[in-house]
Design goal:
Layout: E1 10-14, H1 21-28, E2 35-38, H2 41-52, H3 57-61, E3 64-68, E4 75-77, E5 89-92, E6 95-96, E7 101-102, H4 107-110, E8 116-119, H5 122-135, E9 141-145, H6 155-158, H7 160-168, E10 174-180, E11 197-202, H8 206-212, E12 213-214, H9 219-231, E13 235-243, H10 249-263, E14 269-276, E15 278-279, H11 281-290, E16 301-303, E17 309-311, H12 313-331, E18 337-339, H13 344-351, H14 360-370
Parallel strand pairs: 1-2, 1-3, 3-8, 5-9, 9-10, 10-11, 11-13, 13-14, 14-18
Antiparallel strand pairs: 4-5, 6-8, 7-12, 15-17, 16-17
Helix pairs in contact: 9-10, 10-12, 12-13
Length: 375
């Protein structure tokens, strides 16, 4: 199902990452592939310099897998834009960069190293998570992977989803999310009943998915994968982010929403997020260079207070209101909706709701998440 699984052209292994079980597991799936042990920071910088000197450093980096150890923290708060309603979400950085090549992807600008990185020191992750969850044991926690790299795009090489699910399964105050744009669900274990594990998909209009999300499967295949996951016992979420304006966007977004609720029972959906296209000015130059045929960056954008280019406010509101309306029309009014990286005024005028307090989003989602079986 879906696009072909990702395999790199070459693997580099940090010398310090050699003796970890995850390194052995990944290399076992890449037998015969060119590989090199990186013995020093100097050699690493030489390799990176060669990648950055290529005609397309981002594209070149996507063909290379780098195995290393995480020297900082794995778990961090979601890097929400200043002066917006925070989502209260925590991210686990286990892998960086993505093998998919979406024109609008912020990672083209955000991450310093263009290759796909996997951190292999899992024991340090489990230890850090134990301390993190103990510290926050009195509050409801939403935490997940997929912020700086797709949660499932490398799962056929790493097998990390099963280990993460095993760790988080049954933790009463935690909802763990795997976020993907792929259909690579083959390594997800079945669960007996809906619990605290959510698998979510990024969705978009068919035109945007086909023209701007290179390497990702069509939307209908993502929905079929979500249906298969529901049959395995999971609940699911969906992220319409970024919503993009183009001729006929109203009809195409309504069609995607209609298909979503035809394929997935509303009772299995724990949340649905909406976010309008936004990007730092520096990313526009990268998109122009890498994807000269795209038209999505040429619209009525203004520089927001957060330093990002955003749709002119009336256009943004029209986009968000319309898709929220499609969700209510086809899925009912009980589907929890939230906005990504928007201020109070857009929440009020776009969803007719003004969140209160730093944890407004998680408090709104909590009854849907923790009001059900947690086993």
């Amino acid at each position: 199902m879906g696009a072909s699984p990702y395999y790199p052209d070459r693997v580099y292994i940090d010398k310090k990452a050699l003796d970890f079980p995850l390194t052995e597991r990944i290399l076992g799936h890449l037998d015969g592939l060119p590989r090199e042990i990186v013995p020093s920071p100097r050699r690493k910088q030489a390799i990176l310099k060669a990648i950055r000197s290529s005609e397309d450093p981002v594209g070149e980096g996507k063909r290379i897998l780098y195995l290393t150890v995480q020297r900082g923290r794995f778990v961090k708060p979601c890097p929400c834009t200043p002066r917006v309603i925070g989502c209260g979400y925590f991210i686990i950085n286990l892998n960086l960069q993505c093998p998919l090549d979406c024109t609008y992807c912020i990672l083209q600008h955000y991450l310093a190293e263009p290759w796909l990185t996997v951190f292999v020191n899992l024991e340090d992750l489990w230890h850090e998570l134990d301390g993190f969850l103990e510290k926050h044991h009195r509050r409801a926690i939403r935490i997940g992977t997929g912020e700086l790299g797709d949660s499932l795009a490398l799962d056929h090489l790493t097998g990390l989803s099963a280990e993460l699910i095993s760790y988080f399964r049954g933790k009463a105050n935690v909802c763990f999310e795997l976020k993907t744009k792929t259909a690579g669900i083959g390594d997800l274990p079945a669960v007996q009943r809906p619990g605290n594990i959510v698998v979510s998909w990024s969705l978009n209009a068919g035109k945007i998915a086909g023209e701007e999300e290179r390497g990702a499967p069509p939307v209908i295949e993502r929905l079929q994968a979500a249906r298969a996951v529901v049959k395995k016992g999971y609940r699911v979420g969906f992220h319409f982010d970024p919503l993009v304006r183009f001729p006929g966007w109203e009809r195409e977004y309504e069609e995607v929403v209609r298909k979503l609720f035809q394929v997935i029972p509303a009772s299995s959906i724990v949340w649905l997020s909406l976010g309008a296209l936004r990007f730092p000015p520096a990313l526009k130059k990268i998109i122009q260079a890498r994807f000269p045929a795209t038209k999505i960056i040429y619209d009525e954008f203004i520089l927001g207070r957060d330093g990002k280019l955003r749709y002119f406010r009336p256009l943004r509101l029209e986009l968000l209101r319309s898709v929220a309306g499609f969700v209510k029309k086809w899925g009912g009014k009980e589907i929890p909706l939230y906005l990504c990286m928007e201020g109070k005024e857009i929440w009020r005028d776009g969803l007719a709701w003004k969140p209160r307090g730093k944890r407004a989003v998680e408090n709104t989602l909590s009854p849907r998440l923790w009001g059900q079986d947690k086993s």
